[in-house]
Specification:
The complex is a heterodimer of chains A (257) and B (268). Chain A is α/β, with parallel strands linked by helices and 257 residues long. Helix content of chain A is 28%, strand content 25%. Chain A has a single domain, classed as Metallo-beta-lactamase, Chain A (4-Layer Sandwich). In chain A, a hairpin with a 2-residue loop joins strand 10 and strand 11. Chain B is an alpha+beta fold. Chain B folds into 2 domains: 131 residues, Alpha-D-Glucose-1,6-Bisphosphate, Chain A, domain 4; 128 residues, no CATH class. Chain B contains 7 helices and 13 strands. In chain B, the strands form 2 sheets. A 7-stranded antiparallel β-sheet of chain B has the order 1-7-6-5-4-3-2. A 6-stranded antiparallel β-sheet of chain B has the order 8-13-9-10-11-12, covered by helices on one side. In chain B, a hairpin with a 4-residue loop joins strand 2 and strand 3. Classes of the chains: A alpha/beta (257), B alpha+beta (268). Chains A and B meet through strand 1, strand 2, helix 1, helix 3 and strand 14 of A and helix 2, strand 2, helix 3, helix 4 and helix 5 of B.
Chain lengths: 257, 268
């Protein structure tokens, strides 16, 4: 079972910092480990994809060793899956001044997580929006239907890191884990099955790739799997652009020809 | 060869520490700056420091030896060899672990400070892992609110709070002004609105400078925490003296707070 309780700095220019916050595999996750990230600018922080109950201790420990929890300004959720959002009631208490950032589509579902979120939730409009963190901007980039109908990636302009939600997710074989992609072809074989089944639409995927190319990110950091940097960013976008996913692949299998 | 060492006092039984040290893949995965692990053909781990910190990167193939109180991890890399020896000295209630890290290879003359930092971080990781059980083991399987594992909240232990919150529902959120010794007036107001014997009430000021959390069973305080910029006061009430201290802490709380109220509802 893979369990790395340490954080790892991805970017640091003295004022602006980005951390990956460790990883651990629950018995049922079958190699699909969840990544959480912290962006800090001056005295403000944003926790990206805070995660569920089972990762809470590690994430809390790592975040609080970097910033006081009252400095967390945003808890940023790409979509509504339990592995992203199930710890929301815990973070409600532990990051008491933070706002919850999620697609407008999911705002009305948050009370089902047993929290009274009015006043603390920011619904992101479908076209996306910008969030100020200290002297930096985090942009919510539409990623709808990849895989959730209300889905966003988050782009940290200062570091050039794009937090890509489930896009780029990979399932590691048993006993294997790495933080950064080194062998793209091998890594693509760990991503393919997930993308074909979980991503809904080839058209949506290509629209996302087009948008991301405009941003020119230096790093793409998904919610599952490994981080793309250097030449692997381009390889990953090329790979996505040529991938058929979702209903375009499975229509015949699911509904008959 | 460069050698650096550190000693950590671990507040856990020796068996816990041994368990961590003997699970070699898991222990090595938790060394600082490990970015790749494979157990496919023996254990290999890549250690890579962030580019903006120090240029150091190699993949090590590990072998492991142990005798009755020493544990040796030898990593053979392409540019150098790294070796960690952990020696345990059991004391009455805790364990002293002495860690010695040595490195021979490329750049060893530049690595003194880095190596010291590295061995200290490994020491802290060992302490952390041995002192904390995995979260999965901390989760209580059932909730009997009045029984009651869920009420076993100690505000100095975040997981006990998380355990409570994961089985609770938020029933009120709003801005409240708490006057001098006014927390109990607020609790009285909340009780008029909320039909639950057990209440978890938390509050934070707008600037985050002051916050409190209190768990109540009827009028009895079970646990309380009050944080200001100057201090953190927390008590879990187990005896009369704790109860007195809890009331003293409660009476210090005043100001304008965003207050959240949770009640236990059960669940797994």
């Amino acid at each position: 079972m893979i369990r790395n309780m340490n954080s790892y700095p991805l970017y640091d220019d003295g004022e602006h910092k980005v951390f990956w916050l460790g990883i651990e595999e629950a018995e049922d996750e079958k190699g699909i480990l969840t990544n959480q990230y912290l962006v800090v600018d001056g005295h403000q922080a944003a926790l990206i994809e805070p995660g569920g109950f089972f990762v809470f201790t590690r994430v809390l420990k790592n975040v609080s060793s970097i910033v006081p929890l009252t400095q967390i300004k945003y808890l940023m959720y790409s979509h509504q899956d339990p592995d992203v959002i199930a710890g929301i009631n815990l973070w409600f208490e532990y990051a008491p001044l933070a706002k919850f950032v999620i697609s407008n589509l999911w705002v009305r579902f948050i009370p089902h997580m047993a929290v009274l979120s009015a006043g603390r939730t920011i619904g992101i409009p479908d076209k996306g929006s910008d969030f100020t963190l200290g002297n930096s901007i985090i942009r919510a980039i539409p990623s709808h239907y990849l895989h959730s109908p209300g889905n966003f990636s988050f782009y940290d302009e200062k570091s050039g890191i794009l937090f890509s939600s489930d896009i780029g997710a990979a399932a590691f074989p048993e006993g294997e884990w790495y933080l950064f992609v080194e062998d793209f072809n091998e890594h693509a074989s760990y991503m393919e099955g997930f993308h074909k089944r979980y991503m809904s639409s080839t058209k949506a995927l290509r629209a996302w790739v087009r948008k991301v190319r405009e941003l020119r990110p230096k790093v793409i950091a998904p919610q599952h799997g490994a981080i793309f940097r250097d030449e692997h960013v381009g390889k990953f976008l090329d790979w996505l652009e040529n991938l058929e996913v979702g209903i375009d692949v499975f229509e015949g299998e699911f509904y008959g020809e | 060869m460069k050698r650096k060492n550190t000693t950590v006092l671990i507040n856990a039984p020796k068996d816990n520490v041994k368990q961590i040290l003997e699970d070699v893949p898991s222990f090595v995965t938790n060394w600082p700056y490990v970015v790749r692990v494979s157990t496919k053909n023996g254990l290999t781990a890549e250690i890579m420091m962030p580019r903006f910190v120090f240029k150091f990167r190699d993949i090590y193939r590990f072998t492991y030896f142990a005798d009755y109180n020493s544990y040796i991890y030898e990593g053979t890399g392409r540019r150098g060899n790294i070796s960690l020896v952990v020696t345990l000295k059991e004391q009455q209630r805790n364990v002293n672990a002495v860690l010695e890290l040595s490195y021979r290879g490329k750049g060893e003359f530049w690595l003194g400070k880095t190596l010291q930092n590295f061995v200290e971080k490994i020491g802290l990781v060992l302490k952390d892992l041995a002192e904390n059980k995995p979260i999965q083991n901390q989760v209580q399987p059932s909730v009997d609110v009045h029984g009651s594992t869920v009420l076993n909240v100690d505000f100095s232990d975040p997981m006990s709070v998380a355990n409570f919150l994961s089985k609770s529902r938020m029933v009120h959120s709003g801005l409240h002004v708490i006057g001098e010794k006014g927390l109990f007036d607020l609790i009285g107001e909340l009780r008029d609105m909320i039909q639950s014997k057990i209440l978890y009430v938390s509050g934070i000021t707008n600037d985050g400078a002051s916050s409190f959390k209190v768990l109540l069973d009827g009028s009895r305080i079970l646990a309380i925490e009050y944080r200001t910029q100057e201090s953190v006061k927390a008590v879990k009430v187990e005896k009369d003296e704790d109860a007195r201290m809890a009331i003293e802490i409660a009476s210090e709380i005043k100001g304008t707070y965003m207050v959240n109220v949770w009640i236990p509802v059960g669940g797994v």
